[in-house]
Structures are given as C-alpha cells and as structure tokens.
Amino acid sequence: ADLNTDMKELVEVAERQFDQFGYVLVENYHDILKQEEEFYNILACSFDKKKLEEAWNQFKQFDELMVVSSADHNIEITSKRASKGMALEKLAFLRNGSLDQAMAIGDSNNDLSMFQKVGYSVAMGNAKDVIKAVCTTTTLKNDE
C-alpha cells in the first residue's frame, strides 16, 4: 500500500480516537484478559482487513460480548448490555418518553442497535449503503 497515504490516514484516525480519554494501549488481546482494571470497551484498529476479520470472529464467539465497527479500520468490543440501543431504551424510560417517537442518527454499524429501537432512523449521507437501507431516511454527510 501507499505508505504516505496510509500513514496520513492513520495519523488522522489516531488523533480522532485518542482525543477521547481513558485508553489503555495493549499489545494483543491476551493482555486485555490480564488487565486488573475494569474495562468497558475494547477498540481494535488495523488497516489489515484480514486481521480485523479474525479478531471479529474470535470475540464474536463470546455470548456476553457484542462486536461492532464504527469505521473500516476498527472493531469495537463491548458487553451486550452496553449498546447504543439499550442506552436509548434507558434514556426513554428515565424521561418517560416513547421510542416510537424517538429519532436516532448515525453512520456506522455500531449505530444499528439504535436504529432498531426507534420510530425514526436517519443515516448520515456518508454512511454505507447497508446503513442507509435500514434507516427511514438519509440526511447530509457528517461534514455538511
């Protein structure tokens, strides 16, 4: 691959991901299992699609885990009880609201659990076709 192009993309991706907080870097998934600290989300990044697919299949074997992706270069591993859809259910309950009248907006397959819960689902214009297909409507791209 074009190292300069890949490196530029890698730097941009890393800056977006690590702009958040609470990350602990590990060399491999065995190190995750040895962690003494609690963790709530595992984010694995790679431009090697085969490695991502292997990791997806490895973690998908655990019934208590959910594996999703928010971009072409990553997978995210969380508890099945920690989806965006479940968070919306809890928010609606706490606010005495109805999910039938709620709207969710997203662009990745990590948003699918939200789309399945609400009456109105909106795909960003930059979303892949599979995301647009499950939504009730599509809006502008995320940078518009």
Detailed description of the structure:
With 144 residues, this protein is α/β, with parallel strands linked by helices. It has two domains: 3-80, Hypothetical Protein, Haloacid Dehalogenase-like Hydrolase, Chain: A, domain 2; 84-138, 3-Layer(aba) Sandwich (Rossmann fold). The two termini are 30 Å apart. α6 links the parallel β5 and β6 (137-138). The protein is built from six helices and six strands, in the order ααβαββαβαβαβ. The chain is 38% helix and 17% strand. It is globular, with a radius of gyration of 17 Å. The protein has helices spanning 3-18, 29-33, 49-60, 84-94, 112-115, 129-134, and strands spanning 41-45, 65-68, 74-79, 103-106, 120-123, 137-138. The strands form two sheets. Strands 1-3-2 form a three-stranded antiparallel β-sheet, covered by helices on one side.
